[in-house]
Amino acid sequence: MRNIVEVQNLCVKFGDFFAVKDVSFAVTYGEIFGFLGANGAGKTTTIRVICGLTHATSGEVIIAGEHFIKGKEDIIKANVGYMSQRFTLYNDLTIKENLDFAATTHNVSRKDLQRNKSDLFDLIQFNKKESSLVSELPSGIKQQVALVAALIHQPKLVVLDEPTAGVSPVSRAYFWELIRKLTKMNKTVFVTTHYMDEAENCDRIALMRSGELIAIGTVPELKNNTFSTQMYNITPKKPLINDDAESISRLCLLFEPYGIHYHVVLKHDADITSLEDKCYVEKVNPSLEDVFIKLVEGDR
Ligand SMILES: Nc1ncnc2c1ncn2[C@@H]1O[C@H](COP(=O)(O)OP(=O)(O)O)[C@@H](O)[C@H]1O
Ligand SMILES: [Mg+2]
Fold first, then answer.
1. pTM for the whole thing?
2. Which of 67, 154, 172, 258 could make an S-S bridge to 164, C-beta 3.0–4.6 Å?
3. Can you give the residue ranges of every domain in the chain?
């Protein structure tokens, strides 16, 4: 069996509204699978179905070979660790109390709790007191303890919904080190993020827009499939006035601000000479941000 998650033709409706519409994909054992999309794209709703917290309106979800049917919830719960987008730990409880609670909800024995906790504390190089109140922890440490709570029952699949939202860049980088270590411990990681630099760390990425899956693949596949012709980074020799911007835009399939530069893809590569009058031009490889803008926001 190659896939730990199989989602087939999943639909989730709230009233008449499709939060998730005919979405199909699979997650392979051992990979870091990134789930991207703007706010409201349907990522959390899909995740909640995978974790058994929201019912599918139609479609199939199979976790570690088990279909989501009544009576199988416990098998699924045992295989999945979930770190939700907002609420993860009880702020007014200590670290120890939070982890005891997480262990109880997953029927982890005291002996296994002690062993798993000690392994996971080693993983995050934990050096706080377990009696510390969660509310007193910096947000980066809170996320690490939340990760320990999600892993306390040794699930094969870890689902992390925007785990690094609101934490410092240093803590974000450290959290991704932990994610990579998890795959070495034979975990599969399913993660959503808004940060494109983080998404580049994923083995494969799925992109959602308005409840639909619009692209899936490795980072190089997404880049090559989205832009089949050369991308240029252009820097205007003088600030572009409206007329200049419009005349350049007419030559382009893509014309997006990129810091103080622009990333452009031309309709006809021969038009490069017209660009060179007004701009310094260099060839670049598309970034994941370019892919994201083109696929997710490009039609708007
Ligand atoms: N319980 C709910 N009832 C009604 N609408 C919901 C509910 N949960 C989510 N939605 C809507 O479904 C859409 C997808 O939401 P969500 O899955 O949270 O997106 P994302 O995680 O990609 O930001 C949004 O328009 C959201 O407002
Ligand atoms: Mg969400």
1. 0.90
2. 172
3. 3-217, 224-297
The CATH label, of 3.90.1070, 3.30.70, 3.90.580, 3.40.50, for the domain at 224-297 is: 3.30.70
- Find the 130 Cα to ligand 1 centroid distance in Å: 35
42 lines ligand 1 (CB under 6 A): yes
Residue 87 has pLDDT above 70, yes or no: no
Mean per-residue pLDDT for 253-282? Answer: 90
Please report which confidence band the pLDDT of residue 230 belongs to, taking 50, 70 and 90 as the band edges: very high
Q: What is the pLDDT of residues 177-205, one digit of tens each?
A: 999 999 999 999 999 998 888 999 999 99
Ligand 1 contact via 265 beta carbon (within 6 Å): no
CA angle 147–220–45, rounded 5-degree value: 40
Residue type, position 199, single letter: A
* 3-217 topology per CATH: Rossmann fold (3.40.50)
Cβ(103) – ligand 1 distance below 6 Å: no
Task: For ligand 1, atom 2, name the residue with the nearest CA.
Answer: 14
Minimal-distance CA residue to ligand 1 atom 6? 14
